Structures are given as structure tokens and as C-alpha cells.
Amino acid sequence: MNKLFRSAVIAGNWKMNKTPAEATELINAIKAECAGKATDGCTVVACVPYVDIANAVEAAKGSFIHIGAENVHWERSGAFTGEISADMLVACGVEYVIVGHSERRQYFGETDETVNKRVHAALEAGLKVILCVGELLTEREQGVTAEVVSRQTKIALLGVTEEQLKNVIIAYEPVWAIGTGRTATADQANEVCKLIREVVSSLYGTAAGNGITVQYGGSMNAKNAAELLAKEHVDGGLIGGASLKAPDFSVIISAAQ
Ligand code: PGA
Fold it and tell me: How far, CA to CA in Å, does 132 sit from each of 87, 126, 205?
């Protein structure tokens, strides 16, 4: 199966940016930038801070933009101060959720095991998961990228059924490329996205591996998106900084058509 048969997904990760009022503005600006241009060649998602969800869902209503969250807790409810459950997200109109972003792993103590729990909670609630994996610069220099990315992928997917896997997108985000302006070359991105596909094939069979959407993320922008997205194993992008600028995000959406 070649990439034309897989769904392309362009997802913005707003991180800790934008107030609710600014969220409404940015969603409206993305809609305006994309007006009259093709958007049906890929799925477009904006993953926004929790407090922006209501405004983003409202502004995106009836448009091509789907709304995602940036994290989710694994319990359904209870004494977990400051956390948000998958059921809460669904009730707010959220369809996607990022799990295992490297900033969560680096700064908030997320482990492969808690990532796995979050993946399960999200899938059981009916959310689509954007599962992030990627190596640190030291790991790339030590030559263990394949081992790290395979381990992260395998543990995150432990216990996930073949049916549930259809709601999982994997984002390859080399940590050294995130927010640094240092993009992986298109060949580096393609190589690791291919490896992730092979890991999925080894767990679920070739059809599942060939069918899963694998994104690249890490300083993807309006200038480099087309080259990255043209690669056989790169089915989309998870975009941080450039997703906060409607004109740039719209160029990336066009590059995915
Ligand atoms: P960046 O972030 O595009 O700003 O590098 C990507 C991400 O962290 O998802």
C-alpha cells in the first residue's frame, strides 16, 4: 500500500499559547486563510490548551478543522487535582488527543508506562490518539534512535487491539528538532517513520503497518513542509510554532493536498 491510500493528518500543537479569545481568532483566521483552497486531501486538527477547547470547538463548527487536546489523564474521574479525563474531553467536543509529547516526557515525568495508560483511556473513550515518539539528541548521537523509537512505540501500544489501532496516529518527533528550528532532513524523517511502520507491522501485521498514519514533527514550517510531506512514509505533520500563524499553517495544509 502506498501513501496515497493512507490518511494524511496535519495537526497543530498550540502548546501553552493562546487565551480563549485568541483561540477563536486563530481558528477563524485559519478558516479564512484556507477559504477557496483544497483542504479535503488531509484531515486538519488543532490541538489546543484545555481552557481554549470550548471556544475552538465553537469556532471550528461546520468547518474542516477538528479539535484536539494536548494531554489526557488515564483515570475516568477521582482525586487527581489538575487533571482532565478522556470523558470530559469527549463531552466538550474534542475528537483527538496528543499523548506522550516529548515535553510531557521531559518536564512532567511521563514514562512509557503512563503514556500507555493514557493511550488506553483515550481510545476507550472514543478519542483518536496522536502518539508521540522520538529520540533525544544524545540518543541519536549514540546510534540508538531505532531502539528508542521502537521501545516507545511498543510500550505505548501494549494491549491496544488491532481495531483500536485504527484510531491511532503516530508522530515521529525527534526531540532535538522540536522548537529548535533544526528540522530532521526529509530522508532522516522518512527513515524513522518507515521504522515505526515496520514496528507496527511486526506487532499487528503488514496491512496495519502499511495503513497507519505516521506524521513527522519538529520545526516543520511553511518552507520545508512540502519536501517532508512528499516522502513515502511521512503521512502528515504535527506542527508547533508554525501552527500558531494562520498563513503558515494554511501553506502546510496546502502542501499536504
Ligand atoms: P515545533 O513543535 O513545530 O515548534 O518544533 C512541534 C511539536 O512539538 O509538536
Answer: 21, 18, 21
Q: Closest Cα to atom 1, ligand 1: which residue?
A: 240
Dist. CA 239 → ligand 1 center (Å):
5
Catalytic residue among 66, 73, 101, 233: 101
Half-sphere exposure of 214 (CA within 13 A, CB side): 32
101 is catalytic: yes
Percent helix, strand and coil across the chain, each to the nearest 5: 50, 15, 35
Cell of residue 150, nine digits:
521502537
Number of CB atoms found within 10 A of residue 186's CB: 17
What is the spatial distance between Cα 247 and Cα 225, in angstroms, rounded to a whole number?
13
- Residue position matching grid coordinates 477521582: 78
CA of 174 to the centre of ligand 1 (A): 10
Helix axes 186-204, 145-156, angle to 10 degrees: 40
Domains of the chain: 9-255 (3.20.20.70)
Per-residue pLDDT of the chain (257 residues; tens, 9 = 90+): 578 889 899 999 999 999 999 999 999 999 999 999 999 999 999 999 999 999 999 999 999 999 999 999 999 999 999 999 999 999 999 999 999 999 999 999 999 999 999 999 999 999 999 999 999 999 999 999 999 999 999 999 999 999 999 999 999 999 999 988 888 899 999 999 999 999 999 999 999 999 999 999 999 999 999 999 999 999 999 999 999 999 999 999 999 99
Enter the C-alpha cell of residue 223: 518552507
Q: Using alpha carbons, select from 40, 48, 63, 38 the residue that is nearest to residue 13.
A: 48
